[in-house]
Amino acid sequence: MRQAAVDERTIEALKSIGAVREALLAEKLDGGRAGCNMCQWRCRIPEGGVGHCRTVVNRDGILFTTIYGVVSSAAADPIEKKPVFHYKPGSLCFSVGTLGCNFRCVFCQNWQIAYADALGSDAWRCSTGIGPQVLVDLAKRHKCEGVAWTYNEPAIWLNYTFDCAKACKEAGLYTVYVTNGYATPEALDLIGPYLDVYRVDIKSTEDRFYKELVKIPQWKGILDVAERAKHKWNMHVECVTNVIPGWNDSEANLTQIASWIAEKLGPNTPWHVTRFFPYGKLSHLPPTPLETLEMAADVGRKHGLQFVYLGNVPTHRGENTYCPKCGTMVISRRGYHTEILALDEKGRCAIDQTDLNIRV
User: Fold this and answer.
1) CA 291 to CA 34: how far, in whole Å?
2) How much is the pLDDT for 2?
3) Does 117 have pLDDT greater than 90?
4) Whole-angstrom Cα distance, residue 149 to residue 26?
5) Alpha-carbon distance 265 to 288, whole Å?
6) For the chain, which residues make up each domain, given as ranges?
7) d(CA 214, CA 161)
8) Across the strands, what pairs with 334?
9) What's the CA gap between 238 and 359, in Å, rounded?
């Protein structure tokens, strides 16, 4: 584990803005080491060292998070932008992100914050002191019905998201994790009673993809935690696969993803197959062809998925919701304009009362 290039003055400065808190799910280990169990890296950090995400630091054998209330990005977004299509469709969701990530995706679109060093100078370019009540007030001021932790990985922000999720539920706001899925089961169980939506990336089913493009040693735990969100905590789960030419666009890989979603999460689980745009170390690749996305959608439907959506590409039908039984267009979407056409108060098709797995 790498050593933190952080001196006492930096820690004291972060304390002065309320960003430093004793970390949740930490354990004391032999020789002054501290264990972090917020994500599946399960870092074992020597005294003076930092975690893989560079947001937690071991000081005298005690693990501290350094990003509490540190907000790098905020916006009142349509929930469809997450993308989440089957939970409170058409509602606004106050979305916030912080600094750092437990992945190092070579194609990251948000690398400016995901690769940021929370223990360096980057924190001073952020809004700070955004406590749970401030966040609730901001959401209500912007006429949002919910709050999402997004833009970077919320699992590394557990101290903050846990406190905020409780405050949001007390205030009547729904809550969303937009996540890479690398949280530990115990982290999910901590926030589980207060989290409504788990929007998770299922990037591939191949080791090579995760090791070479994401830089993590194992990925199957992502699937286990997604199942846990669905079946233990009854969260609303939607999955996203950003389809990258030459990497995860084979019919075999897409078949494995679709089959897993249908079998483990249920055939009415929304699957968003989204267009990749050249970026970062994959700037030499072309954007995903529309034909590839249409093939992925066909694969999903062939293997039992009732709701497969195309993202990041303009289509006439790819983002609308249709009743799988009678074919009625239930929800129309054009960009981020959502129009509910045939949905009853229980989230069913208004024509034939088919359950659409939509929470209204």
Assistant:
1) 49
2) 45
3) no
4) 22
5) 26
6) 8-65, 73-318, 320-360
7) 24
8) 337
9) 12
